[in-house]
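agent: user wants the structure for ABC transporter ATP-binding protein from Oceanirhabdus seepicola. delegating to structure tool.
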Amino acid sequence: MNKILEVNGLKKDFDTFSLDNISFSLQEGCITGFIGINGAGKTTTIKSILGLVLKDSGSIKLFGKDVDKNETALKNHIGLVLDEGYFYEDMTIKEMKSVIAPAYSNWDESVFKSYIKRFQLHLNQEISTLSKGMRMKFAISLALSHHADLLIMDEPTSGLDPLVRRELMDILLEFMKEDGKSVFFSTHITSDLDKVADVLILIDKGKILLMEEKDILLDTHGFVKGDKKMLNKHTRKLFLTLQETEYGFEGLTNKKNVVREQMNGVLIERPTIEDIMLAYIGGNVNVA
Ligand SMILES: Nc1ncnc2c1ncn2[C@@H]1O[C@H](COP(=O)(O)OP(=O)(O)OP(=O)(O)O)[C@@H](O)[C@H]1O
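agent: tool returned. relaying tokens verbatim.
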């Protein structure tokens, strides 16, 4: 599989926050979830990739080419949905589209119109009167109307109701049906990724803590409950988090098979992506 985006040694210092030597890559044909709590550095990373924030150091390659040297050509391949509105509020949908469309050499008006129809948006409606869900749908319509290969979305589901979030997930899966497409999707609402993500990248305090295929993560991690008698110097080391009560314990392990072998009789449940995220960013972590 081709690497569609390669980020190497990305650094950005703000007064009270730093992106600390961020490196990761995205594989073609994958939906990659970029997860982390509020303020973890997701937006700063995405904006640095796009050149909307000036990085201090590091290299970024899109489709194998240096972003700094090929900005305009590469922009044609990217569909962008940012969390903060980048629309002119007093324009209508049609007027805003006319500002954005000429920036893309492969703009496809018929695709745009089909999304507007599908989302029941009205070309003459003023942006300032759009609800949050309608804004997101408009942003998606723009992002998908120039045959982009990589869709980059920053917190697209934030503040949306479950129905609209589901609709968005369906659109992503539809987009992925065509060969060579990829999605990079930042969110702190990890439940959105349960169904759609192939790979997860976890960022916290400006550092990448974890990068793994979702299925492998969910297979190797387990939420374990059992009798306190099973805990000893060795078995304790198998846990990322551990809570003990008078009688029992519960904790998250990243070595599910070893726990199964060495701790007979414990109950092992499948964790959610959120359980895993919180275990890695919380204290009390024994990462081997
Ligand atoms: N222009 C800036 N100047 C100074 N600090 C900044 C600037 N932009 C972002 N930050 C800081 O960088 C940190 C990371 O912010 P960022 O928006 O990247 O996080 P995030 O993971 O996207 O959070 P959220 O989920 O809340 O959107 C925050 O502490 C923020 O205050």
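agent: one observation worth passing along. The radius of gyration is 21 Å.
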